[in-house]
Amino acid sequence: MNLSETTPANPAGGHSPLTSEIEQRQTITMTGWCGNGYLLPGGESIGDVSNTDFFLPSTKEQEAYRAAGTLDEWLRRIGNYAHDNSRLYLMLGAAFGAPLLSWAGLNGAIIHLYGGNHDVQNAVQRVGQSVWGHGYKAFVSGNASRSALEQAALSRNDGLLSISGEIHASNARNLIPLTTGKVRGRGTRAGVRCGGNPFCLFVTLMGDVRWEDFIGADSGAGQGVPVISVPYYLKRPDVFSDDAAFVDWVQESCNRYYGTVGRIYMQQLLANKSHWQQFAVRDFAACYNFLLDVPPGKEQIARIFAVMMTGLKLAIRFDLCWDTEFNVMCRIMDCFYDALEVVAPLTDAQNENGGSHE
Fold it and tell me: How far apart are CA 38 and CA 95, in angstroms?
């Protein structure tokens, strides 16, 4: 959280005509963790964020982060179809893992889904986005300016930033500043300084080829927030006759049922924050060790995927996901090794059961 400004006391000494409570109010320009509470991108708060004012985004963005539908509707219409689907769990892992990044001492990552059908890629992103906001309105355009993308990062701190449209060489460079984990200081917003702010978030986006294939190795990308290119793959649920049917279903569902799951998730975390933070820190290490044979130099990437595993495991414990912890960990592990372009070794449990990867 960035504390940008506090209401000053009376310079002449003593209290100003304002009450002492108002004097102590803090004005912030970032969302996410805030004391014993959490600020959502649309300006809503969960838990105790008393004495805090947040400069709200546009009305359009506030509408994008309202909640619609029930948990049961989201599970039946969206969450249910993630079972055994690594790329859907990748997006859900980013959604549930984002608030845990600071607990793991990480700034986050840009998850770049590449190859395949753009409509399907977009639908996969929508599944993760639906945890926090509207399946379409909560997206930020990949053609947005650098300053707009930086402001979007601030307003989704400790959360998920989903970027729509194909990312290619001509628009990717506006995203490079996000890889530093900090927005550079430039001017003010409503009289409050909004530059130089560190942030934690997951960013999801899509394109035709790997990030490094069109941005180049000398771009400076990945210095603080790595860009992880994961190849497109969709294990389409059997109930859908083709990819188009799946895309239509996801678009309709994520535009009708959204935001409720993220609110419940944060309510559960905040109900006993100290306990769940201690659990998460221990679980990060366990999930990291679950990723067998991490190549040298890929330790930070492995920690990112470990955070996703922990986020999904917490979602299961909060009854927000209909699956087993072992299965979701295996699906995230599939994504990890696909990103590294190596064959994942089978776990002991998979070997014992004659199992295989997705």
Answer: 15
> β-strands 140-141, 159-166: how paired?
parallel
Cα–Cα separations (whole angstroms), residue 208 to 73, 139, 166: 33, 19, 7
Q: Amino acid identity, residue 253? A: S
Structure-block tokens of residue 256: 């009708």
Count other C-beta atoms under 10 Å from residue 60's C-beta: 8
- Geometric angle at alpha carbon 179, from 213 and 136, rounded to 5°: 85
Cα separation of 157 and 180, whole Å?
14
CA-based angle 249:129:313, to the nearest 5? Answer: 100
HSE, side-chain direction, 13 A CA sphere, residue 113: 32
pTM of the model: 0.85
Give the SS3 label for residue 123.
helix
Greatest mean pLDDT range, 175-184, 308-317, 347-356? 308-317
Question: Which residues, 6+ apart, have CB-to-CB distance to 74 below 8 Å?
Answer: 130, 257, 258, 260, 261
C-alpha span between 230 and 217 (Å, rounded)? 17
| CA dist., res. 60 & res. 41, Å (int) | 11
CB atoms within 10 A of CB 84: 15
Output phi, psi for 345, to 5 deg. Answer: -70, 145
Q: Read off the pLDDT of residues 34-44 as tens digits, 9 standing for 90 and up.
A: 888 999 988 88
Question: Residue 220: pLDDT above 50?
Answer: no
Token pair for 19: 């009450």
Residue whose token pair is 């009450």? 19
- Single-letter residue type at 298: K
Cα–Cα distance, 99 to 128 (Å, whole number): 14
Q: Which residues fall within 8 angstroms of residue 131, CB to CB, at 6 or more apart?
A: 92, 95, 96, 160, 258, 259, 261, 262, 265
Q: Are 132 and 40 in contact (CB under 8 A)?
A: yes
Q: How far apart are CA 64 and CA 258, in angstroms?
A: 9
d(CA 291, CA 73) in angstroms, rounded, equals: 33
